[in-house]
Amino acid sequence: xxxxxxxxxxxxxxxxxxxxxxxxxxxxxxxxxxxxxxxxxxxxxxxxxxxxxxxxxxxxxxxxxxxxxxxxxxxxxxxxxxxxxxxxxxxxxxxxxxxxxxxxxxxxxxxxxxxxxxxxxxxxxxxxxxxxxxxxxxxxxxxxxxxxxxxxxxxxxxxxxxxxxxxxxxxxxxxxxxxxxxxxxxxxxxxxxxxxxxxxxxxxxxxxxxxxxxxxxxxxxxxxxxxxxxxx
Length: 232
Ligand SMILES: [Zn+2]
Known about the structure:
The protein has six helices and seven strands; from the N terminus they run H-E-E-E-E-H-E-H-H-H-E-E-H. By secondary structure, it is an alpha/beta fold. It has one domain: Beta-carbonic Anhydrase, Chain A, CATH 3.40.1050.10.
């Protein structure tokens, strides 16, 4: 493959994007933005982080994604809420956060392998990021919720949900996230792990609540299929 082989595809794709935009597509967001959701989704290329909500207009979702959908960054050894989450909450009036993990997550897999004595990933930036997940994974493997003796794919998917809960809980408890901000924890399933339908999100955490029966009380009846848990 030549070095710039991709470039014509990119430019043609963008050309088609420009041609295909409806009239006035950006009219309401020329001066500012008021996204109603900040979605901390894993960066995995298989996860359509805006399209999963059937949203195709600009200015609706703020998307600070990263590998493994972590919600914090480290500031002088302290965990502080990631800037990409704080910005919309404190500066654009956003009052809902979704932490979105996904089945078969590579970052969770890498952290699981480190936690169970496997090799630390490289290069250093990846290693540092994955290692932020490792203590949580170790805690999960010791917990009652995760069946650490199950086959690897099963354990990974349990850990994915555990990670979503953990990240959502961190936000829920953070002094930097105002009380009136709603924190959702979702797992995006594109592999038929939770149910038959690929592409469905499962609400596994609602403002710190992880009990599916209690979460279901807040969910419209026709969408109760979207409440499920591998842990509880
Ligand atoms: Zn992932």
